[in-house]
Design a protein that fits this description.
It is a single chain. With 138 residues, the protein is of the alpha+beta class. Helices cover 57% and strands 16% of the residues. The strands form two sheets. Strands 1-2 form a two-stranded antiparallel ribbon. Strands 3-4 form a two-stranded antiparallel ribbon. It is elongated and about 85 Å long. The termini are far apart. The relative contact order is 0.09.
Length: 138
């Protein structure tokens, strides 16, 4: 009668083609807005409601954006910035678990040195800048 219409799934796929879709910033915004919505139910604050709607709107903007290159660059910068914290915390956790070594920084180049755990005062040569300095291990 009216011709053949493609199924809903095909129409939706055609609509979403060429759009950014979900990424890390989208996920952070959605989960943050969910937390703010729950907090808003308990505290009945206009601030929580505005932040909730703002984050949700920004997440939807990112999801449906057709400027994929710009959204990917933003997401890459976001992941690089917050990835430093994740890497540093994992490194500190690994160093804390290592009972056979002590980690010290070179005073001139800030290189992280892994030294064997031997009590006393030692002279250490930095492999990066070749500067010698003394280290006290307790």
């Amino acid at each position: 009668m009216f011709g053949h219409r493609p199924p809903f799934r095909q129409r939706l796929a055609g609509f979403l083609m060429g759009r950014n879709g979900p990424d890390t910033i989208y996920n952070v915004c959605i989960w943050s807005s969910l937390v703010l919505a729950v907090l808003g139910m308990f505290f009945d604050s206009l601030l929580f409601t505005l932040l909730y709607f703002g984050l949700f709107a920004y997440a939807m903007f990112r999801f449906f954006s057709r400027n994929v290159v710009k959204r990917q660059a933003e997401n890459r910068a976001f992941r690089n910035f917050f990835g430093k914290f994740r890497r540093n915390s994992a490194l500190r956790k690994q160093q804390k678990a290592d009972k056979e070594h002590v980690y010290k920084k070179c005073p001139s180049c800030n290189a992280q040195l892994r030294l064997p755990y031997r009590k006393g005062e030692h002279t250490v040569c930095c492999p990066r800048c070749k500067r010698e300095f003394s280290v006290k291990i307790r």
